Amino acid sequence: MYHYRAFKHPAWIDTIGKFGWTGVDLFFVLSGFLISGQLFKEIEKSGSISLKTFFTKRFFRIIPPYYFTLALYFLFPFFREREALSPFWKFATFTQNYGLDVIARGTFSHAWSLCIEEQFYLFLPLALLVMIKTKAFRYTAIFAALLMILSLVFRWIIWKNCIVPVLDTEGFWKEWYMEIYYPTHTRLDGLAIGVIAGYLMQYSSRFKNIVHNNGNRLFILGIILLGISFWVCNDQVSEEASIFGFTFVAISYGIILMASVSRSSFLFRSKSYITSQLSTLSYAVYLSHKGIIHMIQDALGQLGVEGSGNISLLICLAGCIAGSLLYRFMIESPSSKLKYRILNERT
Length: 347
Hints:
Structural class: mainly alpha
Strand content: under 5%
Distance between the termini: 44 Å
Order of helices and strands: HHHHHHHHHHHHHH
């Protein structure tokens, strides 16, 4: 809904989708928790991490659909939702989130979050191995908290030195996105919260008991804090939101995540076929949705269908899901089979 506002859309989307940008922060919290949790379990079991196994799994999950999408963008210009792309090497090396001029090179700009994710996949297992070797592993949660604080400090320094001088200029939005919103070093809050939660759930019996015994209370607390976070971030580019907003949002989603894994929570006991299927399609939707929406709205315009209407929205939503199903059967499923074949050969 947040990205749909960049296209022709019904007026109510502006209200509903206003805080949709926090979906990225939820994604970071989930990723930090799930990926670190897998690594912590492996460390607990074997005392180390198999980098070959970890990177093989990540490669076949991430790279084939991503490079397929890059091929669409670079080989078929009609797929592009805007005119200009960042250089291919930035996409290929997952560094596109640095120096990203969203005004001049806004096509496939949403890949910035995947860049941060891939950098996280590279850094985390290596950092954990170093901490195991140096006997610093017990301080993992403290190191993660320091990274979160460091991100907040970076945003404060950048706001004072880079954003304030351009507050009243036409280049404000470009600088804000380039300096605060997209860089990895300013967006570590969600990943850090996820890693902290994953570490404590694995190694702290006290923390685990608190989570499992207070699921619904944690959910209520998380929702209240998320509401406060939205209030702080009502103006997304204000000083308060730019410096503290990402931290508040990440903590709120982290508490809600703990509620969802708590055995005493209604969320833990609830099963949904629809949401589980959407979760398996989410990566493909993430990669392709802007290109698909752009093509569908162009086609509907030629047919005389109003692009800003609810019918157009529903058609675009259906198109995004259909596109993700093609990704699943054409790319993701074959990649997954190849991944398990390679992993089984190694074992």
